[in-house]
Design a protein that fits this description.
Layout: H1 2-12, E1 29-33, H2 39-48, E2 58-63, E3 66-72, E4 78-80, H3 87-109, H4 112-121
């Protein structure tokens, strides 16, 4: 009963409360291609992960303005911050790569040739 009373006091108290710290599962993640301006952060991330820097086109996962993980599109190598919970972020990067490969396959086979064939038969 005391916990209920405490809840009611907190709920109806008019003073502003500080925002509760968000856990890693509630942070927004942006997946995008790496830019030239990201080169320093990518080198630092690779050094932190004790790996060689990624080369070629790279996808990065950005959380609160900081690159948490990166994936090389040519060789599927991943570098990630070992001090952050990056497993889910890396999975998001891999999922995005699968989406890009699927879209690339559709654009090669394409829907356009089938439409042209249908028009030609009509």
């Amino acid at each position: 009963m005391l916990h209920r009373l405490g809840y009611m006091i907190d709920r109806f108290d008019g003073r502003p409360r500080p925002a509760a710290p968000r856990g890693a599962e509630q942070l927004a993640v942006a997946i995008r291609r790496a830019r030239a301006a990201d080169a320093t952060q990518l080198c630092d991330l690779a050094a932190l992960d004790c790996a060689d820097p990624l080369e070629g086109p790279v996808l990065v996962a950005v959380v609160e303005g900081r690159i948490w993980a990166a994936l090389g599109l040519d060789d599927d190598r991943v570098v990630a911050d070992p001090f952050l919970p990056t497993a889910c972020v890396v999975e998001l990067l891999r999922m995005r790569v699968r989406q890009l490969h699927a879209a690339e396959g559709r654009s090669r086979g394409g829907l356009l040739p089938r439409r042209i064939v249908r028009r030609a038969r009509a």
